[in-house]
């Protein structure tokens, strides 16, 4: 799609986000970063993904834990 960007701006964005590297290198870099707890930066929220996960974890656990316990109880 036409985003109204010049070729120089597109090249600058590709460089900034690492899209100029081969796909295997991008994958390896992302995998290693995730293993170290770096999940990147959310363009939509404007925050680190790890902070978004941390802020939503209590709500997620409050839903998942009772569901898991109910599933275990029904399994036996």
UniProtKB/TrEMBL annotation:
Q: How does it sit in the membrane?
A: Multi-pass membrane protein
> Which GO terms of the cellular component aspect does the record hold?
plasma membrane
- What compartments host this protein? Cell membrane
Coiled-coil region(s): none
Write the record's keywords in alphabetical order, separated by commas: Cell membrane, Membrane, Transport
The UniProt entry lists the main location of this chain as membrane
What is the protein name given in its UniProt record? ABC transporter permease
Q: Which organism is it from?
A: Acinetobacter baumannii
């Amino acid at each position: 799609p036409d985003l109204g960007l010049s070729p120089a701006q597109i090249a600058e964005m590709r460089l900034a986000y690492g899209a100029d590297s081969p796909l295997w290198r991008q994958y390896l870099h992302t995998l290693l970063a995730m293993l170290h707890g770096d999940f990147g930066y959310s363009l939509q929220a404007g925050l680190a993904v790890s902070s978004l996960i941390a802020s939503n974890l209590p709500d997620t656990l409050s839903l998942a834990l009772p569901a898991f316990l109910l599933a275990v109880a029904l399994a036996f």
